[in-house]
C-alpha cells in the first residue's frame, strides 16, 4: 500500500499515532508544525472514539474545495449515517502529500454529507509564521493578569462575591467580545479569560437590576390572591425586564452554604436572592405568560417607526 493510501487509512481509522509516523518531520500542515497538527488530531480523534452517539465507520470520499482554494482536491471522512468528521484538502506530489488542511467549503463528488462536524482548530500562536506584535504581547500579559487575579480570589475565598467580580468584569470585559467569534483569527492566550467572562459578565450585568427585582418581589408578595387575572400584568412586566427567567436557572444552588455553581465557579447566592425568586415565580407561572410580550412588541413598534422616520425609503 502506498504512503498516501496509508495516510488516508489512518484518517479513516482515527489513528493519530500512525499519522505521527507517516507525516513528515519538519513539514507544516494547515500552517502549523507537524507536531502541533498531530497533537490536535489526537485530541479530536479521542473525543470521536469516546462519543457513543456517532458511528466511527468513516470512509474517505473524494471531493474538492469550492471557495478559498477552489478546485483543490481532497477528501471528506464520512460515516454510514452521512456524517463527516472533517473535510480536508490534500495537496499532493507523486508519492506524498505536501500539505493537508481543513476545508469548510468542500463538495464531495459522489456522496452527500448530511452533517459536517467542526473538526480541528488552531490558534494564531500555533502557526509557523506567527510573530507577536507589541499589542499581542501587551494583551497576553493583561489576560494572564486577569486570570491570576480571579483564580487567586477563588483560591483565597473559595467563593466569588459581587464586590470582587463586578469590578473584575468591568476592568477586563474588553478582552472578550462576541465579535471575536466572527473573525478569522483567535488567540489561545485569550481563551481562558474569555471562558471566565462568558460566565461572570451576565451575572455582573443582571446584578444591576437587583433593585428592580426587589421591588417586583415585594409587589408580588403583596397580592392577596394569586390568580391568572390578578398577576397577569405583573408577569408581563417581570418577563419584559427579565427575559428568559421563565425558563428558570441552570445553576446548582446550595442554600445552606449560600452559593450556587456555574461553570465550576462558586457564586454567592444571597447576592442574587431577589433575582433567584423572580426566576422561580416566572417559571412557576410560565404558562400564564403570553408567548409574545406586549411590552416588547410595543418597544419594537416604536423602534421600527423611528427607523422609518430616519430612512423613509
UniProtKB/TrEMBL annotation:
Protein name, per record: Uncharacterized protein
Species: Kaistella pullorum
Lineage per the UniProt record: Bacteria, Pseudomonadati, Bacteroidota, Flavobacteriia, Flavobacteriales
Amino acid at each position: 500500500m502506498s504512503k498516501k493510501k496509508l495516510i488516508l487509512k489512518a484518517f479513516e481509522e482515527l489513528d493519530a499515532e500512525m499519522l505521527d509516523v507517516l507525516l513528515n518531520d519538519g513539514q507544516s500542515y494547515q500552517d502549523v508544525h507537524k507536531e502541533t497538527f498531530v497533537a490536535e488530531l489526537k485530541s479530536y480523534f479521542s473525543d470521536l472514539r469516546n462519543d457513543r452517539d456517532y458511528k466511527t465507520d468513516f470512509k474517505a470520499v473524494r471531493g474538492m474545495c469550492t471557495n478559498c482554494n477552489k478546485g483543490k482536491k481532497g477528501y471528506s471522512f464520512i460515516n454510514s449515517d452521512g456524517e463527516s468528521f472533517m473535510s480536508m484538502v490534500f495537496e499532493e506530489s507523486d508519492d506524498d502529500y505536501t500539505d493537508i488542511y481543513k476545508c469548510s467549503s468542500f463538495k464531495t463528488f459522489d456522496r452527500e454529507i448530511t452533517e459536517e462536524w467542526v473538526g480541528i482548530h488552531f490558534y494564531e500562536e500555533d502557526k509557523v509564521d506567527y510573530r507577536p506584535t507589541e499589542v499581542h504581547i501587551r494583551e497576553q500579559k493583561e489576560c494572564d493578569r486577569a486570570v491570576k487575579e480571579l483564580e487567586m480570589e477563588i483560591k483565597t475565598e473559595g467563593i466569588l462575591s459581587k464586590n470582587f467580580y463586578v469590578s473584575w468584569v468591568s476592568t477586563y470585559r474588553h478582552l472578550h467580545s462576541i465579535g471575536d467569534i466572527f473573525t478569522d483569527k483567535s488567540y489561545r492566550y485569550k481563551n481562558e479569560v474569555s471562558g471566565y467572562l462568558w460566565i461572570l459578565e451576565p451575572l455582573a450585568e443582571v446584578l444591576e437590576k437587583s433593585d428592580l427585582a426587589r421591588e417586583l418581589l415585594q409587589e408580588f408578595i403583596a397580592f392577596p390572591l394569586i390568580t391568572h387575572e390578578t398577576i397577569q400584568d405583573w408577569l408581563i412586566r417581570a418577563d419584559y425586564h427579565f427575559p428568559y427567567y421563565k425558563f428558570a436557572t441552570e445553576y446548582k444552588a446550595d442554600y445552606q452554604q449560600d452559593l450556587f455553581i456555574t461553570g465550576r465557579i462558586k457564586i454567592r447566592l444571597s447576592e442574587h436572592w431577589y433575582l433567584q425568586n423572580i426566576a422561580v415565580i416566572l417559571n412557576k407561572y410560565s404558562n400564564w405568560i403570553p408567548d409574545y410580550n406586549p411590552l416588547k412588541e410595543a418597544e419594537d413598534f416604536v423602534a421600527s417607526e423611528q427607523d422609518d422616520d430616519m430612512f423613509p425609503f
